Amino acid sequence: MITATRAETGWGRFRADFQAELLARIPEHLERLSWSAERIEAAQRDGLRRLLAHAVAHSPFHRQRLAWRPTSPEHRARLTWPACR
C-alpha cells in the first residue's frame, strides 16, 4: 500500500503555498506598522474606491445601487463619508 505524505496531498500543497506567500509578505506588513494616520486613511480610501469600482463594473445590482455616487469633486467635498472625498 502506498501512502502519500502530508506535503504531497492537495491540502498539504495548498498549505505550503499559502504559508510561503504569507511569509513573503511579512516585510510589507511590517512596513505598514510605521504608517501615519493620514497614510492609513489614504490606503483605506483607495482600497474602498477600488472595491466600489469593481462592484460597479461586475455587478448589475451594485451598479444600480451605487449609481447615486457623486462624481464632481465639489459634491464629494460636501459629503461626510470619507471614502467619497
Plain-language structure description:
Helix content is 66%, strand content 0%. It is mainly alpha-helical and 85 residues long. The chain has one domain.
The helix content is 55-70%
Number of domains: 1
Average pLDDT, rounded to a whole number, is 82
Order of helices and strands: HHHHH
Q: What fraction of the residues are assigned to beta strands by DSSP?
A: under 5%
- CA(first)-CA(last) distance: 64 Å
Based on Cα principal axes, name the global outline: flat
Tally of separate helices: 5
Main β-sheet description: none
How are the secondary structure elements laid out?
Blueprint (H helix, E strand, L loop, with lengths): L9 H15 L1 H7 L4 H22 L1 H6 L7 H6 L7
Features:
85 residues; mainly alpha; 66% helix; flat
Overview in brief:
The protein has helices spanning about 10-25, 25-30, 35-60, 60-65, 75-80. The chain has about 80 residues and is an all-alpha fold.
